[in-house]
Amino acid sequence: MLMAVPKALWAYRGFILGNVKREFQIKYRNSLLGALWNVLNPLAMIVVYTVIFSKVMHSKLPGVDRSFAYSIYLCAGTLTWGLFAEIVGRAQNVFLDNANLLKKISFPRLCLPATVVSNALLNFAIVFGLFTLFLLISGNFPSVVYFALIPVLAVLVMFAIGLGITLGVLNVFFRDVGQFFGIFLQFWFWGTPIVYPAAILPAKLRPYVELNPMADVVVACQTILVNGQWPQWSSLWPALLLGLVLCGLGLRLFRKHAGEMVDEL
Amino acid sequence: MGKITVNNLGKAYKQYPSRWGRLAEWLIPGSKSRHRLNWVMQDVSFTVNPGEAVGIIGINGAGKSTLLKMITGTTQPTSGFVKLEGRVAALLELGMGFHPDFTGRQNAYMAGQLLGYSVEHISRLMPEIEAFAEIGDYIDQPVRVYSSGMQVRLAFSVATAIRPDILIVDEALSVGDAYFQHKSFDRIREFSKQGTTLLIVSHDKQAIQSICDRAILLSQGRVAMEGEPEAVMDYYNALLADKEGASVHQVMTDDGKFQTISGTGEVEIEDVQLLNADNESIELVKVGEDVRLRVSLYVKEDIESLVIGYLIKDRLGQPVFGTNTSNLHHPLEHVKKDSRLQFDFRFSANIGEGSYSIAVAGHRGAVHVGGNYVWKDLALVFNVINFDKSSFVGVAWMNAKVECHV
Fold first, then answer.
1. Do B281 and B217 belong together in one domain?
2. Are B75 and A263 an interchain contact pair (Cβ–Cβ within 8 Å)?
3. B40 and B166, same structural domain?
4. Does B97 contact A173 at a Cβ distance shorter than 8 Å?
5. Between chain A and chain B, how many beta carbons pairs sit less than 8 Å apart?
6. Nearest CB to A173: which of B22, B90, B142?
7. Keyword annotations for this protein (chain B) (predicted)?
8. Domain boundaries, position A152
9. How confident is the model at residue B96 (pLDDT cuts 50, 70, 90)?
10. Are the beta carbons of B95 and B151 closer than 8 angstroms?
């Protein structure tokens, strides 16, 4: 039973990869520069964060005395948060968006969230690749510590998938979920130390930030990229456990209601 | 290979009294169920053997599409099960779940991948798919600019690019133009000959009768009849006629008796039947068949004169043929109160294939405007099929012969 999901997804890998490719192709269809926009958009974002904040506004990160420190801090937070938000945001609507397909063709429904995750990872790889290039050129590359990002991002993706599938199934039956979560995500973004360092928060608020599993993940990324230090592995436990629980819950909800889902679309 | 087993299939949709009902049911563990099951299909069982072609017919809302969706697995049955043996290709409703923003080619690849083909395989099939669909340069346009006919052309071409063990076709094909319908039915027939199991939903009687070995009539979510296509079609037509009759009756109860069966009411039409040579009541008439239209009347008042007429109209309501007892030199004079009369109009059904209705009227003079006792539209609906004549088009059968002089 547990192996049935990966097996079905593997059998339909052609479909999933094809979906990713097609979505990539149509994104900038009818544009002259085409695929170049996939690079230009994230590039513009990185340039804004680095040039504006470090060179124009001279924003400094408390405790770190490098000109690009705040820019790197900002990128580390927003890029990883962006990956999380893209997976969750698109997974919660994935069944609604593909109603036409679900109603007409029988295939493993989990191919759809798998497509979302693959797509988000691809987008992330592009923008993060550019960011890494910037780190190398500006001499801020955090050496071997960089590879600690892999397990950290794995935890993030796991958490996002679990949450995304859970919300995706719920959203089919209760459309309020999608609306609500759109609002909630904004508060969550500002409640996570992405734009500001956690240290500037008043002591009263600190305990609440510690309840936020995303804060641990984002801070781990920032530790790696800004300080060039190994993250505090134990801080990732809550996110990992919550991610596993949500994955289990999401799959259970999905199993129980997948049949009913098509009737509601 | 290619066997379909449907066992005791049933489908019910959950209906909640309010939006909160479902939430309460989900959140409160062990709470009583708050929904009502609305059964749209129950106890449907049948088997389609390998190589067999079965047609499913039924009026709108009988559950045909629901049944096909459960068979193909897009919707799950509430009770019972479906077993499919062999590779299935299905065409449900319009298209194959095409994505409107993807081009026809991209959608063809996607649909092919969902059918389990590899990209290389689809690339090899692509020229053939394009050729069969005949949509030209549109193949590289997004599907949202396609006409519905073009979508069906592409969907059918993809679904049938490789002969499946089981082919399931919903009414989709009726969207295509006559040319493509022909082409696609040729392909379906060809597959059938090669051993593909067919399950077809159609309102097209000719299609069902010419392709299928067996037909299943669904009515209100149940199997109403199963058997020879012709027999099932007859029964279906009777059901349709009954439905149309019922709608006539409904108008009657709304506005009083004289609205639909118009007229002054001295004469009442009790029964209208179409009889064949063996005196059996029929709904299906063969081209050129000798039939009798039997009109049974009850005369309520003494009347001076009585002329009975009938008018055969085609599907679109165009008059095809009409006459009356005055034209036929058989008017009645001085008909007594409480008498029952029976008129038999004999004629050869020298008309083309299609659906026809008969209106019957009783009046005083040669034309019904001069004192109309009774007028009944849609008194009878019947279908004409070409059973033993050479193939022809048009509304009239003219029994043409050909000679060649050199």
1. no
2. yes
3. yes
4. no
5. 72
6. B22
7. ATP-binding, Cell membrane, Membrane, Nucleotide-binding, Transport
8. 75-264
9. low
10. yes
Q: State pTM to two decimals.
A: 0.69
pLDDT score of A140: 80
pLDDT exceeds 90 at position B345: yes
In chain B, residues with a C-beta closer than 8 Å to the C-beta of A101 are 97, 99
What is the residue whose two structure tokens read 């059901």? B239
Beta strands B261-262 and B88-91, pairing class: unpaired
Helix (H, G, I), strand (E, B) or coil at A113: helix
Q: CA-based angle A178:A179:A182, to the nearest 5?
A: 85
CB–CB of A19 and B74 under 8 A? no
ipTM > 0.85, yes or no: no
Residues in chain B with CB shorter than 8 Å from the CB of A26 are 101-102, 106, 142
Is B91 in the same domain as B196? yes
Domain residues for the domain of B95 are 3-235
Identify any residues that bridge with B12 across adjacent strands, giving them in sequence order: B39
Query: Has residue A216 got a pLDDT over 70?
Result: yes
Ramachandran class of B129: left when φ > 0, alpha when ψ lies in -120 to 50, beta otherwise: alpha
**Contact (Cβ atoms closer than 8 angstroms) between residue B38 and residue B66:** no
Inspect the interface and report whether the beta carbons of A263 and B114 lie closer than 8 Å: no
Query: Do residues B331 and B307 lie in contact, with contact meaning Cβ atoms separated by under 8 Å?
Result: yes
Exposure of A110 in the CB half-sphere (CA atoms within 13 A): 21
**Looking at the structure, do residues B104 and B149 belong to the same domain, yes or no?**
yes
Q: With an 8 Å Cβ cutoff, is B119 touching chain A?
A: yes
Nearest to B181 by CA among B165, B204, B197: B204
* Phi, psi (degrees; rounded to nearest 5) at B335: -90, 130
Q: How close does chain A come to B154, measured CA to CA in Å?
A: 15
If we measure between CA atoms, which residue out of B163, B160, B173, B172 comes closest to residue B111?
B160
Q: Which of B203, B235, B267 is where one domain is finished?
A: B235
Q: Do residue B90 and residue A105 have CB atoms under 8 angstroms apart?
A: yes
Cβ separation B14–A260 shorter than 8 A = yes
CA distance B189 to B51: 11
Cross-strand partners of B183? none
- Inside any domain, residue A21: no
